[in-house]
Automatic annotation (TrEMBL):
Biased amino acid composition, Pro residues: 1-12
Keywords for this protein: Coiled coil, Nucleus, RNA-binding, Transcription, Transcription regulation
Low complexity bias spans: 13-27
Main location: nucleus
CDD domains per record: SPOC_SHARP
Residue ranges occupied by any SPOC domain in the UniProt entry: 60-226
GO molecular function: RNA binding
Name recorded for this polypeptide: SPOC domain-containing protein
InterPro entries membership: SPOC-like_C_dom_sf (IPR016194), SPOC_C (IPR012921), SPOC_met (IPR010912)
Length: 226
């Protein structure tokens, strides 16, 4: 694992305006759906707007219900941030609720370390994913306050996170302590599109992967307790 990355100046908290989902989720998709900031909740409690059906293709409505949004906020890498929404894919969604900061005014998820995308480094992740209660798998997609902001956040996610991590052939690591502690309690690993992420997403969420793989940048997020 690579050493800690240099700590940049403090980043701004997540934007307080309602965020919009990406415009690139499917053909004919309108310029985004406003989403209010809420704490991460178990998938079964996720609420969806009643006018979703009239605005989106039926297949995307079903996909959004199947993979609900559990968090919106800012991942951070060096001096860069990008607004994303995290969709629950598989595993124990309680881990997301416990490890992610508040969407409203919470701190960014700052990547401080990297892990090589090598078999020896990935075996532990694959092993944890054999026990459903031991991990939480999420998919990060860009979002924004309006259509123009979605475009800007999409470019930021691609350039500052995906391209960077792919060039380093690494996943980004975020250590999350419990409130009031400095000791890591959870580890979040952000994977750019790669063979490892593609193999797991194609198995666990083939419909979601097929919908976004060619039209929207994304990160696969793996969460586990330390």
């Amino acid at each position: 694992m690579k050493p800690d990355l240099p700590a940049p100046p403090p980043s701004q908290a997540a934007p307080k305006q309602p965020l919009f989902v990406p415009t690139t989720l499917g053909p004919g998709t309108p310029p985004g759906l406003p989403l209010t900031h809420t704490e991460a909740q178990p998938a079964s409690k996720q609420d969806f707007s009643p006018h979703l059906t009239s605005q989106r293709p039926v297949d995307m409505v079903q996909i959004l219900k199947k993979y609900p949004i559990v968090w919106q906020g800012l991942p951070a890498l060096k001096n860069n941030t990008a607004a994303v929404q995290l969709h629950f894919v598989s595993g124990n969604n309680v881990l997301a609720h416990q490890s992610l900061p508040l969407s409203e005014g919470g701190p960014p998820l700052r990547i401080t370390q990297r892990k090589w995308l090598e078999a020896s480094q990935l075996e532990g992740v694959a092993r944890r994913m054999t026990v459903k209660t031991d991990y939480c798998l999420l998919l990060a997609l860009p979002c924004g306050r309006d259509q123009e902001d979605v475009v800007s956040q999409t470019e930021s996610l691609k350039a500052a996170f995906i391209t960077y991590l792919q060039a380093k052939q690494a996943a980004g690591i975020i250590n999350v302590p419990n409130p009031g502690s400095n000791q890591p309690a959870y580890v979040l690993q952000m994977f750019p599109p790669c063979e490892f992420s593609k193999s797991h997403l194609s198995c666990l969420a083939p419909d979601l992967l097929a919908s976004i793989s060619k039209i929207s940048p994304h990160l696969m997020i793996f969460i586990a307790s330390v």
